[in-house]
Amino acid sequence: MASALLLDLLSASHVWQLCQWAAWLCGLFLLFTAVRLYLKQRELVASFRDFPGPKCHWLYGNAHEFRQDGKDLDRVVEYSKQFQSGYPMWLGNFFASFIVYDPNYAKAILARQDPKDNFAYRFITEWIGKGLLVLSGPKWFQHRRLLTPGFHYDVLKPYVGLMSDCANVMLGKWERLVSEKDSVELFHHVSLMTLDTIMKCAFSYQSNCQNSSENAYIKAVYELSYLVDHRFRVFPYHNDFIYYISPHGFRFRNALKTAHQHTAKVIKQRKESLKHEKELEKIQKKRHLDFLDILLCAKDENGHGLSDEDLRAEVDTFMFEGHDTTASGVSWILYCMAKYPEHQKLCREEIREVLGDRDTVQWEDLGKLSYTTMCIKETMRLYPPVPGVARQLAQPITFYDGRSLPKDTVVLLSFYALNRSPSVWKDPEVFDPLRFSPENTSDRHSHAFLPFSAGPRNCIGQNFAMNEMKVATALTLKRFQLSLVPDTEPIRVPQIVLRSTNGIHVTLKKIQ
């Protein structure tokens, strides 16, 4: 019995020692973490020593100022008026990005091959994969070179007819809606139209998405865009495990499943069609292939095609980018036409002169819509479909004014703030399409207006997008007179693309 008691005491003593060691290890780990975070914070402060910025909260940094209340973008603009060229924006005390809105700074950054910021883009990678949007290095160059022929003007020419057809389907729906109510919410209808367009043009997929009562993919894109932006703003959700077990993580996985099922269906159908000899012969006779056919027929020097992962990543990327950014652009253009009726009138006169009695736009018409194009560009200045892009500096950079940023700095180029900078634009809040007349653009800085970014990583589909915006705007204004709905001012939010939390509503009146 005594020996048993002794063993118990020794065992208890052993357990106590283990607990002490565990406590010491936990203490050392916490101390090491605290020191590491302190050093990181001091390093970040040193990185921005030449750049004053807004006052930071001791805990939140500047994060608490951005509440997704429709004024976040305006806060960035207000700060841009206080601090020259750029300033640090802190999320807490241990992470900061550098906000840029100076055309000279933008030119220096976009001329380089710095990768997309992994922190900002990693939350979207699970959705669109590692396609052209997020790739960097040799693989990005390989995919860019591979896909560039898919946007040759010989490929884009026949797309104009398909764009007209898709736009007319939307306008036909609006004619029926006008008999029931005066106004429509633009973004939903335009999103269906641009999705229909990209599927028919780039993926040879005959979609009926505009005429179906519900479209699961469009709803999934809305959900994913909101959830990606929400996750970025909620610090605990940056941890993969916490996000996985959270209600928002559950919603994300459900929406992700729907989006991936849609793109898988498109790929599968095109693969099946290529098994038929006639379809294969038709492709082989083409001088320039469509986007999806390029991906399916691509071979490297060893005769190997793209992996299934790479194929789906590019399809997911262009399915989203090819419709959602353009939907944002078209929606805000029609909103501006409703808001500024004097410019709407001038556009309509030009469109009638170019199109005559036709209800379709032809390739040759696009270059003749000069005033309409200026209105489109002025809208993209005030309401850029992509409000900003992020880079992570692979090497230090020194700007024209002698100030520098070190390697690994996360840089956010705010196109929204750049486009509203009084040092770049006269009366920047005024809607003035003549800013983009030939006589007014000759002396402008090359990087003052960047609707499709610039440099080697500029938007590969910019001509496709501009053509679609011209077609949709021309056919809409030819058929309808647009005006604003009272008390429905859009609440602008950057959710990957520029959206409105309360929709974009306009009143439609059929032109006889």
Automatic annotation (TrEMBL):
Sequence intervals crossing the membrane: 22-39
State the InterPro entries in the record.
Cyt_P450, Cyt_P450_CS, Cyt_P450_E_grp-I, Cyt_P450_sf, Cytochrome_P450_Monoox
SUPFAM superfamilies the UniProt entry points to? Cytochrome P450
Q: What's a Gene Ontology MF term here?
A: monooxygenase activity
GO cellular component, alphabetical, reads: endoplasmic reticulum membrane
- Which CDD domains does UniProt cross-reference here? CYP4B-like
Gene3D superfamilies registered for this protein in UniProt = Cytochrome P450 (1.10.630.10)
Q: Mind listing the UniProt keywords for this protein, alphabetically?
A: Endoplasmic reticulum, Heme, Iron, Membrane, Metal-binding, Monooxygenase, Oxidoreductase, Transmembrane, Transmembrane helix
Which positions does UniProt annotate for heme binding? 459
Q: Does this entry carry the keyword Endoplasmic reticulum?
A: yes
Does Metal-binding count among this protein's keywords? yes
Cofactor section: heme
Q: Where in the cell is it found?
A: Endoplasmic reticulum membrane
Of which family is this protein a member?
Answer: Belongs to the cytochrome P450 family.
Q: What is this protein called in UniProt?
A: Cytochrome P450 4B1-like
